[in-house]
Amino acid sequence: MDSATGTMRAPRRSWWQRWPCWVGRATMVWAVAYAGFGLVCVLSGTPLFHLGGDQGPSALGWGVVAVGSLAMVACGAVERSGLRPALRVLLWVVCVLAGIAAFGLLMDVITLVFGQGVDSGVAAANHVLAAGGVLLLAATARSVRRPSSVFVVAGPAVASRPVQLAACAGTVAFLPYAAMKLIWACGGTFAGITGQEMFAISKRNGASGTWLTLESWGLDATVLLAALGVFLLWGLVRPWGQTFPRWALWLRGRRVPRWLPLAPALIGAATLAPYGVFGVGYAALATADVVTMRRGDFHSSSDALLVGWIGMAAFAVYGVALTVATRSYWLRTRFRPAKKAESTN
Q1: For residue 287, what pLDDT is reported?
Q2: I want to staple 56 with a disulfide (CB 3.0 to 4.6 A). Which of 25, 49, 70, 225 is the partner?
Q3: What is the 3 state secondary structure string of the chain?
């Protein structure tokens, strides 16, 4: 991996750069708020999770209370005795549990972008709170004091060849999906269903005016999102993804803040990778006649299975590629102590 590096003495750090000093207390505040949020929902009988299109039992809110309580225990122990290995493991376990609770945040964002309402405001709030907890818990688990005030600043770097091949696979995986969607958007027929039928299904399922307008113009909203996803994927592996574009004259020479591409990349990877992988597994079981693929809005189960294979394969391959690219970007753009960097070169 080629990169240009330079050594500089870090200036006086702002409160954000001193995050290892305060992130533990911030995580404790989040843990108390999250456990309280779950407890209020349980006692009021408000469901926090949706299983498919149906509301899950409100008793599942006790899981939210448990996650918040475990986080409180871990943060309190870290405050008293420091970040010991067992506590670090506990923090990562709670981080994974919070990530499971945050599943669905990407879908909430997509529906809001296209003017549709979320299925449940309380469930969406749970997704947001849980996602915030993931960031805080992960930061707490990695909150170690930096031993040196001299850092190596990495310049724009190209990801390794295997990472770029993963990005190619993630891009190619969306081509059949995009072709299928565009056939419907242009009024054609695929998997036994016409574009007019698909438009009527979208309207019946409560699609927003923006979504329907795009379809009437021959554009599919999910294809536009796929194009943005591919742009994000290549921005993570190519040097231009680390600097602002040349046409942004007022930002020329400025580095892209790490959080700007990492935030959507982490949300996308955490959502699409497991969704796609489990979906491919289910499609494989349906192909082997172990389970029955529900027909849904299609005319036959075989048509639904064909569309399921195309969609789930795209999400699985892209989700894994996005995970690989995100990890690469994270490692390539972080600040490293100069002595450590010199010893690894």
Answers
A1: 93
A2: 49
A3: CCCCEEEEECCCCCCCCCHHHHHHHHHHHHHHHHHHHHHHHHHHCCCCCEECCEECCHHHHHHHHHHHHHHHHHHHHHHHHCCCHHHHHHHHHHHHHHHHHCCCHHHHHHHHHCCCCCCCHHHHHHHHHHHHHHHHHHHHHCCCCCCCCEEEEECCCCCCHHHHHHHHHHHHHHHHHHHHHHHHHCCCEECCEEHHHHHHHHHHCCCCHHHHHHHHCCCCHHHHHHHHHHHHHHHHHCHHHHECCCCCHHHCCCECCCHHHHHHHHHHHHHHHHHHHHHHHHHHHHHCCCCCCCCCCCCCHHHHHHHHHHHHHHHHHHHHHHHHHHHHHHHHCCCEEHHHHHHHC
Q: Domain limits at 310?
A: 158-337
Q: Are residues 129 and 186 in the same domain?
A: no
What pLDDT does residue 11 have? 46
The domain boundary residue, chosen from 103, 122, 145: 145
Flag whether 153 is in a domain. no
Nearest to 319 by CA among 179, 204, 173: 173
**Calpha distance 237→158 (Å, rounded):** 6
- 52 and 131 belong to one structural domain: yes
Same-domain pairing of 164 and 130: no
Please say which residue of 97, 115, 145 terminates a domain. 145
| pTM beyond cutoff 0.85 | no
Q: Are residues 188 and 316 in the same domain?
A: yes
Same domain, 125 and 201: no
Cβ-in-10-Å burial (0-12, 13-18, 19+) of 253 comes to exposed
Residue 120 is predicted with a pLDDT of 80
Could you tell me the mean pLDDT of each successive run of 10 residues in the chain, 345 residues long? 43 58 89 94 85 71 93 90 87 91 83 71 89 90 58 66 95 94 90 89 79 80 90 90 60 68 88 90 92 87 93 95 93 65 42
pLDDT given for residue 228 in this prediction = 92
Asked whether residue 151 is domain-assigned, the answer is no
- Provide the β-strand partners of residue 194: 189
Same domain for 190 and 322, yes or no, is: yes
